[in-house]
Amino acid sequence: MKIGFIGECMAELSQAGDGLLRQAFAGDTYNSAVYLKRTFSQCDVQFISGLGTDSISQAMLDSATAEQVGTELIGRTDKLTIGLYQIHTDPQGERSFTYWRSNSAARQTLSLMNEDAKHALCSMDMVMFSGITLAILPPPEREALWALLDNLKQANVKLVFDINYRPALWTNRTEAQQSVKRGIEYADILLPGVEDFSQLFELTKLPDIMAFCQAGGATEIVLKNGAQEVHLYGDDSARTVTIEPVKKVVDTTSAGDAFNGVYLGARLSGFTMEQATQQAAACAGFVIQHRGAIVDASQYQTFVAQLRQA
């Protein structure tokens, strides 16, 4: 079972108390890759991006290796480095971000990708990309991504897309709408959030959102709605999975990322959409009770072991 995640991993600065900041490495698709591998270790997980050759880029690579996330398909350059962002979290656990990523090598992911890497992606079971993946790429790189996705489609690789709309990353709303619509049309599996549609397409009603997604051709749709229910569409039928709310939310930074990773790992491992959703929601609920995008590995593994015994 092989899955690749295309995107950007940055240095993350989060609040550590007493005015101190904690450094880690994170990014939406990278976070999903980590949580998938931690939860379903039998899966072969690869991260696809661009990195520099400087010390902080190497530290990011070492961090991925420590998580057993494959890095063989990452292209590198001595002219660029990795991006940086800081998380600001309010008392309710909601977060906002400040970014420094204009010199990020991930913006050149496709240019840095060699033919061997492209060939390796064609042997995957699934490949995931997101609206953030699209947003950080300059137009020529984005066109190269579409061409790559065409090749993956021809190789019968299932394509997974999460809109993950971040207005600040786009030049304008029209560009975002056009790119996201195209991403939806490529997707076999869609993992969006309700808020993506209200912000980007002014769609707020569930039937309208589902119709919009289905029109793109996805055969599996998992519509997340924060702490509320998850709406599913697959096998030509719709259903809803109720989510147990978390009483104490600390940091929602990677709630959706963790959900995506665990959901895809569960599906690759043979679980139904409903079973995968329940596992993904439980793991995301654990993650948001801790600070930072990627929680302590030992605490997470203890939680997963308890979840499987329940």
Automatic annotation (TrEMBL):
GO cellular component, one term: cytosol
SUPFAM superfamilies: Ribokinase-like
CDD domains attached to this UniProt entry: KdgK
One Pfam family hit: PfkB
One Gene Ontology molecular-function label: 2-dehydro-3-deoxygluconokinase activity
Domain Carbohydrate kinase PfkB: 21-295
Family stated for the protein in its record: Belongs to the carbohydrate kinase PfkB family.
Keywords: Kinase, Transferase
Example GO BP: D-glucuronate catabolic process
Protein name per Swiss-Prot or TrEMBL: Sugar kinase
InterPro entries noted in UniProt: PfkB_Carbo_kinase, PfkB_dom, Ribokinase-like
